[in-house]
Design goal:
The protein is of the alpha+beta class. The protein has eight helices and 14 strands. Helix 2 packs antiparallel against helix 3, helix 5 packs across helix 8 and helix 6 packs across helix 8. Keywords: Copper, Electron transport, Heme, Iron, Membrane, Metal-binding, Respiratory chain, Translocase, Transmembrane, Transmembrane helix, Transport.
């Protein structure tokens, strides 16, 4: 009897391992299939001297590199001279001792001290230029969470209440200092968009401010640089730098923005109801519990702000990009990816804390929880509502903005 129970238990464990393996294989296959349709993928680009921040670091680096070369040449010369001059086959006598040679020892101390002092002065000078945050700088608050970003504009209060906020796409003006204040809502993250300046750590319960800038309009890639979990590599964002006039137009439209009211009986209206209320009879949670949509009752803070979702060109914190000049969310591939994202986000983005809507399990507060169920038609209704959340065309920050670091540099042109 014990033998039978043991064999039965082994078979159950084997089936459980097989089920897990199949689930992981399905997730990997689905993720690969979706990623294959990402379209243009933008890359990190470094050494961009369109930023005054980067120029200052560049010139400081020139001094450091020059001194390093001088040291290298000096040490190399001394090494090869000594090896050649005092070869054993040319010198039978015992080597001369220089212990107590005060002149030599003085030079060996003074020269490194001078080099360190020069580098210290240059470093302090650069820090004095770069670190102070001017009172007149444009202010943007940055929040990093697993695995997405929120960018809030504390100086611009929305007419519908709260600060103007955008998820995963940071809009900034060119030709002026921008003061970023960063924090984290969970673990340590790293904010780095090298085109606009240096990187900073986003730390829980800590606010850190620094300046960034750029003098050329464009779309630039940013990434998380601190290992923060399963989707660290998928924690991306865009920096969209605009001329001051276009930036002012964006802020004015964002300030006045209220989510459009869907027409009765439309897919958007059905999606709005599901977004706000969920579907309690199947256990499907309301999206509004975690996401904010400006001008609606949705005021969640556990997920990125979705107020301007239809204007954005990225999904899943930059995992997917849709760079078609027109109707980028209406392409078959974009529709398919958005559908799958809403349906089971944790399956296509490891570590995502979004609930599932296909009845599969997901992790919440460290525990596995069974997700609710929405039909494919209902998922499409939610997607239709999200696509309707657009800024006015004159405030479309992607329109006509070149994309740097991408094979498709005209992705923002309309």
């Amino acid at each position: 009897m014990n033998t039978m129970n043991r064999h039965s238990g082994q078979r159950l464990h084997a089936r459980e391992r097989l089920r897990r393996a199949l689930t992981m294989a399905t997730a990997a296959g689905l993720g690969t299939a979706l990623l294959s349709g990402c379209g243009s993928q933008q890359f990190i680009t470094m050494g961009d001297l369109a930023s005054d921040y980067n120029k200052e670091i560049f010139w400081m680096s020139i001094w450091a590199i020059a001194l390093s070369i001088l040291i290298f040449v000096g040490v190399s010369y001394a090494l090869f001279y000594t090896v050649g001059r005092f070869r054993e086959d040319r010198n039978d006598a015992a080597p001369q001792q220089f212990h107590g040679n005060n002149r030599l020892e003085t030079w060996l101390v003074v020269v490194p001290v001078i080099i360190v002092m020069v580098l210290s002065v240059l470093t302090v000078r650069s820090m004095a230029i770069l670190n102070p945050v001017p009172a007149e700088a444009t202010k943007i608050d940055v929040l990093g969470r697993q695995f997405w970003w929120n960018f809030a504009y504390p100086e611009t209060k929305a007419d519908a209440g709260g600060n103007v906020t955008n998820g995963n796409e940071m809009i900034m003006p060119i030709g002026e200092q921008v003061a970023l204040t960063i924090t984290s809502g969970d673990v340590i993250h790293g904010f780095w968009a090298p085109n606009i300046g240096g990187q900073r750590a986003a730390m829980p319960a800590t606010l850190r401010s620094w300046n960034v800038d750029i003098n050329r309009a464009g779309v630039y890639q940013g990434n998380c640089t601190q290992l923060c979990g399963a989707s660290h590599a998928n924690m991306r964002y865009k920096v969209v730098a605009l001329e001051p006039e276009r930036y002012a137009s964006f802020l004015a439209a964002a300030k006045a923005y209220r989510a459009p009211e869907p027409a009765a009986g439309s897919a958007e209206a059905r999606g709005y109801a599901l977004f706000m209320q969920g579907k309690p009879e199947t256990g499907a949670l309301a999206c509004a519990a975690c996401h904010r949509v400006q001008g609606t009752p949705a005021a969640g803070v556990a997920g990125p702000d979705l107020s301007f979702f239809g204007t954005r060109r990225t999904l899943g914190a930059g995992m997917w990009e849709f760079m078609e000049p027109e109707n980028h969310w209406e392409t078959p591939r974009a529709r398919e990816i958005l559908h799958e994202w809403i349906k089971h986000s944790p399956l296509v983005k490891p570590g995502s804390l979004m609930p599932t809507y296909d009845g599969s399990e997901y992790r919440a507060n460290g525990k596995l929880v069974k997700g609710g169920i929405l039909t494919d038609a209902e998922l499409d209704d939610v997607a239709a509502y999200l696509r309707s959340l657009k800024l006015p065309e004159e405030a479309n920050y992607w329109s006509g903005t070149p994309v740097f670091g991408s094979q498709n540099t005209t992705g923002g042109t309309q």
